[in-house]
Amino acid sequence: MIKIDVEKELIGSIGKMNLDVNLQINEGDFVALTGLSGSGKTTLLRILAGLEESNSYINVAGKVWQDDKHFLPVQKRQIGFVFQDYALFSNMSVIENLLFVNKDKKLALELLEITELSKLKDRNVTTLSGGQKQRVSLCRALMNKPKLLLMDEPLSALDPTIRTKLQDEILTLHKKFKTTTIMVSHDPSEIYRLSNKVIVMQNGVVKKEGKAKDVLLKTSGSAKFSFEGELLDIVKVDVIYIAIISIGQQLVEVVLSEDETLNLKIGSKVRVSTKAFSPNISY
Ligand SMILES: Nc1ncnc2c1ncn2[C@@H]1O[C@H](COP(=O)(O)OP(=O)(O)OP(=O)(O)O)[C@@H](O)[C@H]1O
């Protein structure tokens, strides 16, 4: 069990903001941390890692990492950290990056095998693609068998195909090593696939907590499905109008009557939903 009671006064974009988070996380949980920009997600990870001062109580598997008398420094907190920008040692090869953390060559080779990096093990990390670098970073974070793996938007710089592949590898590694994980993500499909618990932060506090299907799904009533997107354009074709909406990586067209176009503004967020097979659009 991981018990966290974090307090810190932050200076937010509209003035002072209290980061005030009280959580219990079970060992082996995969927690997704989400919420608007500036809500305190990265600061929470940094506090857990011991990179930031705060008034906090942090207890991991019965060991106090931090309370009003103790402050375990970052190198003693058995954590693995994966950042968006990889943070690899650029003068080293793939395997050297891993062995720098821990000399366990058997574990290093096993991690490289799972993430399909075995053939690249002697390559300098600067010659790798973004997806390969992030795999190395993930393997390196697991080399000291952390009690807690912290990942701050690890896949957000990668293109969608590579991203899905890395999600699969993260899942495989999580099943094998059962490392308790907290991952910051803004991507609902990623959160749904990976996590067994979602925490939504807003202005420094936990706004919602629960399983992805209870926290993230917005379909309600008789709506069969529903997507959020951005209205890019409305094009007139003969007597009808077609709204062009970007949803994730896709462009979607929805036919509208002239009346329906009146309240829509190009650039605004819209929701495309369907009841039975008749799509409608609301804003
Ligand atoms: N050490 C600090 N002292 C005071 N304020 C801070 C400190 N660190 C961060 N902040 C402020 O706290 C707020 C939360 O920042 P944080 O980076 O944790 O947000 P976030 O939810 O991770 O945002 P994003 O999704 O954009 O990365 C920001 O307004 C930031 O300026």
TrEMBL record:
One of its GO terms (molecular function) is ATP binding. PROSITE patterns: ABC_TRANSPORTER_1, ABC_TRANSPORTER_2. Keywords: ATP-binding, Nucleotide-binding, Transport. InterPro entries: AAA+_ATPase, ABC_SmlMolc_Importer, ABC_transporter-like_ATP-bd, ABC_transporter-like_CS, P-loop_NTPase. Pfam families: ABC_tran. Residues 1-228 form the ABC transporter domain. This is Molybdenum ABC transporter ATP-binding protein. It comes from Malaciobacter molluscorum LMG 25693.
